[in-house]
Structure formats: C-alpha cells, structure tokens
Amino acid sequence: MRPLIRRTVTAAAATALTLGGAAVLAAPASAVGTSSCTKNVADYNGWASTTVNLRNGPSTSYTSLGLLRPHTKITVQCYAKSSTWAHIKVRNGANSGKSGWISAYYVDVPMNLD
Q1: ∠ Cα 46 71 48 (to 5°)
Q2: How far is CA 97 from the centre of its chain?
Q3: What's the rounded Cα separation, in Å, for the pair 95 and 18?
Q4: What are phi and psi of 14, to 5 degrees?
Q5: How high is the pLDDT of residue 48?
Q6: Cα–Cα nearest to 98, from 40, 46, 55
C-alpha cells in the first residue's frame, strides 16, 4: 500500500475508534434477497415495461445488478414497501437467471379478460 493511502486509512481507523467505532458500523447497502418481502404472491410472469435497473435491494440506494431492457421476461415472486418494489427473477436476456428488485411501476403483466 502506498504511504499516503496507508496514512489515510490509519487516520480513518483511529478516528473511528475514537468515536466508538461509529464510522466502522456504517456500511453500504447490501443484498437483501427476499427478506424484505412484505407481500408474497404466487409466482406470476410478466415483463419489464421499459429499461430498468435490477437492484440487490428494494430501493434506489441499493447497487444495480444490471439493466433490464424493455420486454425482458420476468417472474414476480413478492413485493416490498407497500408494493412499490417487486422481487423478481429474470427469465431471458443478458441477466437471465438473476434475481433482484425492480420498481413495481415498471412491471407489466398480462390481463385475463375471461
């Protein structure tokens, strides 16, 4: 490690210890999977209505796992945060097989008019 970086890291660690470790406890948002689900649904198929970020948590503060293109096929597994975020599994395209969160606003589902 270069000396300037080492001194900066050492100073930051010393400051954190002085403040009771508060700085050490502040971690970036991490993946939450389905643990944030507040409304489970029977898996149903749909698609992304526009280009949308697939995220590792139900908020824009979570990391993007990739972009879903319009008409990317998805399976909705559950909802979180008053049904504003959907936990989905991608069924086709560049992110096929990945699971994550997208804004429920961008989920389209077929209507059964029978």
Answers
A1: 55
A2: 15
A3: 44
A4: -65, -40
A5: 97
A6: 55
The confidence score (pLDDT) of residue 109 equals 87
Give 36-65 as a DSSP string.
G-SEEEEEEEEEESS-EEEESSSSTTSPEE
Start-to-end CA distance of the chain, whole Å, equals 67
Query: Which residues are 64's β-sheet partners?
Result: 55
pLDDT along the chain (114 residues), means of 10: 41 42 40 77 90 96 96 94 90 96 94 76
Q: What's the pLDDT at 64? A: 97
Give me the pLDDT at residue 19, please.
43
CB 95 within 8 A of CB 54: yes
Give dist(CA 102, CA 86) in Å, integer. 6
The side-by-side arrangement of strands in the sheet containing 52-55 is 64-68, 52-55, 99-103, 85-90, 73-80, 39-48, 107-108
Residue 89 near residue 24, CB atoms below 8 Å:
no
Residue 31: per-residue pLDDT: 66
